Amino acid sequence: MSEDAAPGTALAASCASCHECGMLCRLPHAGAHGTRCARCGAPLHTRKPQSLERSTALLLAAAICYLPANLLPIMTVTSLGKVESDTIMSGVLFFLQSGDYPLAIVIFTASIFVPVAKILILSFLLVSVHRGSRWRPVERTRLYRLTEAVGRWSMVDIYVVTILVALVRLGNLATIEAGLGAVFFGAVVVLTMLAAESFDPRLIWDRSEARTP
Amino acid sequence: MRCGSLLRKRPRNGLERTLALSFAAVILFVVSNSFPFLSFEMKGLVTQTTLMTGVLDLYREGKGEIAALVLLTTVLAPAFQLGLLLYILVPLRAGIVPWHLPQAFRVLRHSQTWSMIEVFMIGILVAITKLMGMADIVAGLALWSFALLMLVLSAALSSFDPESVWERVEALS
Fold it and tell me: Which of B5, B73, B105 is the closest to A40 by Cβ?
């Protein structure tokens, strides 16, 4: 079979488990292309196709959107003729000033810490896999699972803006409008989620378990 | 095995429990989307919002992208999850293998990634605290049913075991 497949893995035994239903299927020969799962008919891959390329492209797009997401206002509050723009950071500062520390922490974690951490961790994983690193595969896999699990929580700020826009529309008294920053921020969340999804954590192990020549 | 992630754990009485929870979730889903979840009162003016009016307001402001994202993550994805759970489980209970079962599974798996009701709940709480200083906020019926929906839906999904479904399908065919 594949000469660099680690002993004891499915790949070494010419098998692959289906990405859709999890069934372990036997691959007919070295070129697994075009084989379909015997149970559900999904195409079989030993690894997600073009995982590194896709993930890198999506992550780059996310990093680019990250700047306008933080610099442009996510919402504009018009109250009795006064116009105020809120960015993500000023939202956190608002809660800090009003003494709402728990909420400040929630928003800071969801809107600033999680997206930055996701972009950094995924870039680190992509670079390490690309360079064929054998460094601490267990920890790197854990990092990956972590980014996959926390990504969705960044949506909190988008929901807050939606709710405020819908609730506060009192004509001249007060209105709230969503800003362009929210659009970019939404894009960051979606792009990082897609980037995490297209990354195949098994790539981390391929090099670590390959026999040294 | 090598990375320490849990490979498989079989729930005790599988498919029937998931089915019951799914029915409960459908009822909660309908209630959550047809009643306002918050109302806001300032100087005698009252506004109420349901999930759909929020999405529509964003769309009217020209923020169609966010409107679509919110619609997808709080209405469409959960609706797909529930619809597909029932689509898979109801015929199986009657002893029929549902049509296009693999495709149904595929969509179910993808809608799981994009369904974010629990995140939306946090969003509501943050919005409430933000507005508390400004005006009176009254929680609506839908807020409670949202909270319940979040619990029941995640219970339904965590009790759902695709392997048991495949086993039953193989027993039937």
Answer: B105
